[in-house]
Amino acid sequence: MAVAESGTSTPHPIPDRISETELRQPTQIIVREIVETLLLTFFIFWLVNSLVGRYRIDGSSMNPTLQNGQYLIINNVSYFLNEPQHGDVIVFHHPQSDLNLIKRVIGLPGDEIEIDNQQVTVNGVALDEPYIAEEPLYSYSGVVPENKFFVLGDNRNNSSDSHSWSFLPSENIVGKAMFIYWPPSDWDAVPHYGFQNEE
User: Fold this and answer.
1) Is 91:102 a contact under the CB 8 Å cutoff?
2) What CATH number does the domain containing 113 carry?
3) Which of 6, 9, 19, 61 is catalytic?
4) How far apart are CA 57 and CA 87, in angstroms?
5) What is the tally of structural domains in the chain?
6) Mean pLDDT over residues 90-110, rounded?
7) Which of 42-46, 120-124, 142-146, 183-187 has the least mean pLDDT?
8) Which of 18, 44, 88, 111 is deepest in the core (most CB within 10 A)?
9) Is 148 a catalytic residue?
10) CA torsion, points 183, 187, 189, 190, in degrees to nearest 10?
11) Which is catalytic among the residues 103, 148, 159, 162?
12) Owning domain of residue 169
């Protein structure tokens, strides 16, 4: 006597063997994403370093405004859009050496500079300079040529600047000093002083 089964069983399909291509695909995706992330990171790093720079103060020529050992953020694109202005603190390549220096812009192209009797005058106007260490003990007279600038350190009597090596070519300017970021106790914006008759 034959016994009939009460239910019919559906055989489970045996999965096809996963191809080697399908096994490789997740690995390729992960590698591609890692490469894309690294490229994006390098691009952002390059972009940020193109727009801003870092500069370490080495020496006392900008005392009391800036101190030896401080680190600054420099805006490298400031002067692609605008010319330096009176009172700006700028970083530049020394016109006669491989050094990078930081000084304050005192004279723009066409300005007549006079330094006498411990007083700096620009176009006949005596400057009020609350940022300097002491009044200059030297004398100077000159007119700033086209495409050049006259720069001085705030520590007037202890600074290698335009009064000793002449005018700064505009193409030597690196950027505008913006912010002191190290040491943390000195965090602050770099003070730029416009001249009284320009405010």
Assistant:
1) yes
2) 2.10.109.10
3) 61
4) 18
5) 1
6) 94
7) 42-46
8) 88
9) no
10) -30
11) 103
12) 57-198
